[in-house]
Design a protein that fits this description.
- The complex is a heterodimer of chains A (211) and B (495).
- The radius of gyration of chain A is 17 Å and the shape is globular.
- Chain A is built from six helices and ten strands.
- Chain A is of the alpha/beta class.
- The two termini of chain A are 19 Å apart.
- In chain A, α4 packs parallel to α5.
- The longest helix of chain A has 15 residues.
- With 495 residues, chain B is of the alpha+beta class.
- Chain B has four domains: 65 residues, MutS, DNA mismatch repair protein, domain I, CATH 3.40.1170; 148 residues, no CATH class; 115 residues, 2-Layer Sandwich (Dna Ligase, domain 1), CATH 3.30.1490.100; 91 residues, no CATH class.
- In chain B, 27% of the residues lie in helices and 28% in strands.
- Chain B has 14 helices and 21 strands.
- In chain B, the strands form six sheets. Chain B has a seven-stranded antiparallel beta sheet, with no helix packed on it.
- The longest helix of chain B has 16 residues.
- Chain B is extended, with a radius of gyration of 33 Å.
- Chain B starts with a helix and ends with a strand.
- Classes of the chains: A alpha/beta (211), B alpha+beta (495).
- β3 of chain A pairs antiparallel with β15 of chain B.
Chain lengths: 211, 495
């Protein structure tokens, strides 16, 4: 699964709670490193509600070029501009809610541009409903209780996330518990559900939806 | 001074004329007065004195910072502007202009009429002036500053005209002026009456600034001092005159850009600013600006900067003249970066920044730059992407959140614990239970930046019952004497 989330093309990311920074953590872990800056476009509500990126280059090794605009239409426009540029490593947009500008046509435009320029492109949809979209993969991310801290039992340790792939053309949908090894820049997916039948059922349903 | 007053009037904050006002620059012992207005002069303020001394004389003196670089640039622009009267002009010191009007005075009806016109035109710009015409640079300098109003010195009469003026009118430095004063040589006439041999002997080793004999020779025309006029910077501009008024300038833009780029390429230059001006048939003028982070002369790139901006022009009855002008012209050397040709990789990025800035404004497109500060909100600065990128510094010593809220948000503590963070609190109307925490990390205020009375912060990384990780801090301590009970804030979120 780890290579699926590093593939080029448009992906949707739905944080389960709108202000959850876990989604950003997962996204930063999925972005390629050392290939150039990442264009990060935020609309104003997202910046106010979910905060602004902080010391990203030093903590995750991802240099940023940040664009802050007022409307969702401007976010989409800036993302399209960014997808036309060969020097970027990826393009990320954050959109709050379900604005009318974010129609199926708009996502289709982004998806086609991302495919033709072979760039990873992520759309973080805070407080949004998973409506019709042309995204190649659609993820849902929630923060999970962190791993045990090696030295301090009372302290939170390395972050972990519940990650769900609920629609994809390239892989079977499913749910995983994901942790991240920062030194190796490697995501570790492990299946959450111990109930094999339930997981199989969910997978079948997902396939029907995707097909 | 007048430039400052004009600027203040434009800002709508011009002080009344009867208020003493002075502009100050940094001196060796604190700020000194650089220029003052009439009310300040009447109150006894002298240029070159220290601001603290003058404040003692006149307590209601208002002091503003002088902008010497801006003055210098304004003087250079004025120097080019004065070429309306004659072809050779040059700046003289920080506050003077020399115009070589040889053979051009008759165009304005004689020298007296020329001086009157100059004074009127400069007054029209809001500038006061002291003007004189003389056969030599030195004599004109002396007469303009120390002579009668609009003095005209005919050829051959320099000695008579300059004789009553004080000796420092010879463009001498302060020290030499004082020396001549002590020697009893108060006027230029006194100095001219001294035999040349004695002056030569006394000032044999002095430089030009301190040598009255050489300055006297220059003023009397015995030593030559030509005006070497700098060339005006070239203007790159293309225009399209249209036979019929049109509503949309878009079809003409590629042609204009290509013509402009051809002009720039001919001189080996690139531009950093573009100004598209549209002249309406009813006399209106609209202007659209675009800026680039690096000089460029590529027609396609320049053209794309105007995308989405042309719609903002209200066409009215249409327009019949379009001009495109290049600003911020710099030398641009085309370098080949790869053997097989092709542009450098980061050129793409620069163009993307230009386009985004042209579309959303310079303040919307930013790059994070680290700053050396312990206070979290000061450790990262958002710098405009038009500026050159800085090199990254080492990662922070302690773990920092991925997201920082623009303002720390106060939380309501439901269940406090003596040591450590609250066990339960309300943030944005949700009740969160703290299951695990790490900390505290104490960050003291920066006394050199913060206001006195700023409280220290104890930061905790906490994890709530659903697994979200936040960065909380307690502002202050119980009984630190800086306000009441400590308050709690939520400042960031971890991955």
């Amino acid at each position: 699964m780890a290579d699926l989330c590093r593939r080029n093309g448009l992906s949707d990311l739905f944080p389960e709670t709108a202000c959850d920074a876990g989604a950003v953590g997962f996204l930063l872990a999925a972005l390629p490193r050392g290939q150039g800056p990442v264009l990060w476009v935020q609309d104003r509500v997202s910046a106010r509600e979910a905060g602004v990126p902080y010391l990203t280059e030093m903590q995750s090794g991802v240099p940023l070029l940040r664009v802050q605009v007022g409307r969702a239409a401007d976010v989409l426009q800036a993302m399209e501009d960014g997808l036309g540029c060969g020097a970027l490593a990826a393009v990320v947009g954050e959109i709050w809610g379900d604005p009318p500008a974010l129609s199926f046509t708009a996502t289709k435009r982004l998806a086609l541009r991302a495919d033709s320029n072979a760039l990873p492109c992520w759309l973080v949809r805070r407080a949004g409903a998973p409506n019709l979209s042309a995204a190649r993969n659609r993820w849902r991310v929630t923060s999970a209780p962190s791993a045990a801290h090696p030295d301090d039992a009372k302290a939170p340790g390395a972050p972990r996330w519940h990650v769900g792939l609920f629609r994809s053309r390239q892989a079977k949908p499913g749910d995983w518990m994901v942790s991240y090894d920062r030194a190796a820049h490697c995501l570790d997916f492990s299946a959450t559900s111990g109930d094999g039948a339930l997981a199989e059922m969910g997978r079948a349903a997902g396939e029907r939806a995707a097909g | 001074m007048e430039r400052w007053q004009k600027w203040a009037a434009q800002q709508g904050s011009a002080p009344p004329d009867d208020l003493p006002l002075a502009l100050a620059t940094e001196g060796a012992h604190g700020p000194v007065i650089h220029a003052n207005n009439r009310a300040a002069r009447l109150a006894g303020m002298r240029v070159g004195e220290r601001v603290v001394d003058m404040r003692a004389l006149c307590p209601d003196l208002q002091v503003e910072q002088a902008d010497l670089d801006g003055d210098w640039r304004a003087l250079e622009r004025l120097m080019l502007w004065t070429r309306r009267w004659c072809p050779w002009t040059v700046t003289d010191g920080a506050d003077g202009l020399i115009l070589d009007t040889t053979g051009s005075a008759h165009l304005f009806g004689g020298e007296a009429a020329l001086l009157r016109e100059m004074e009127e035109r400069l007054a029209g710009l809001g500038l006061g002036s002291q003007i004189a015409i003389a056969p030599t640079w030195g004599a004109a300098w002396a007469l303009a500053r120390f002579g009668p109003v609009r003095a005209i010195c005919p050829g051959g009469q320099e000695a008579e005209m300059l004789a009553p003026l004080p000796a420092r009118a010879l463009r001498l430095e302060e020290k030499t002026g004082l020396l001549l004063h002590r020697l009893g040589l108060k006027t230029i006439g006194d100095l001219a009456a001294i035999p040349r041999l004695s002056l030569t002997r006394r000032f044999a080793r002095a430089e030009l600034d301190g040598n009255p004999l050489m300055r006297l020779d220059q003023a009397m025309g015995r030593a030559s001092e030509p005006v070497s006029s700098p060339d005006a910077p070239p203007v790159f501009r293309t225009l399209a005159r249209l036979a019929e008024p049109i509503q949309d300038p878009t079809p003409h833009l590629p042609e204009l850009c290509e013509a402009l780029c051809a002009q720039l390429a001919g001189e080996g230059m690139g531009c950093r600013k573009l100004r598209l001006t549209v002249y309406h048939t009813d006399g209106e003028i609209s202007t659209i600006m675009a800026a680039m982070s690096r000089p460029s002369r590529e027609a396609r790139h320049l053209e794309r900067l105007f995308e989405g901006k042309l719609e903002r022009i209200n066409p009215g009855f249409g327009f019949d003249l379009i001009t495109l002008e290049a600003g911020g012209v710099e030398e641009l050397v085309i370098a080949q970066h790869r053997l097989e040709g092709g542009p450098k990789d980061d050129l793409d990025l620069v163009r993307l920044v230009d386009r985004l800035v042209a579309r959303f404004g310079a303040s919307a497109v930013t790059r994070p730059t680290p700053r050396a500060s312990h206070v979290p909100e000061r450790a990262q600065n958002w710098q405009s992407a038009m500026a050159a990128p800085t090199t990254p510094v080492s990662p922070p010593a302690r773990e920092r959140p991925l997201r920082l809220f623009e303002h720390p948000e106060e939380i309501r503590v439901l269940y406090a614990v003596p040591e450590g963070p609250p066990a339960q609190f309300i943030w944005r109307r949700q009740t969160l239970h703290v299951t695990r925490y790490a900390g505290p990390e104490r960050i003291a205020p920066e006394w050199w930046n913060d206001r006195p009375g700023t409280r220290l912060r104890d930061y905790f990384k906490v994890e709530d019952q659903t697994g979200r990780r936040f960065w909380l801090y307690r502002e202050g301590l119980h009984g630190d004497g800086r306000g009441g009970a400590p308050r709690w804030f939520l400042h960031g979120a971890f991955a």
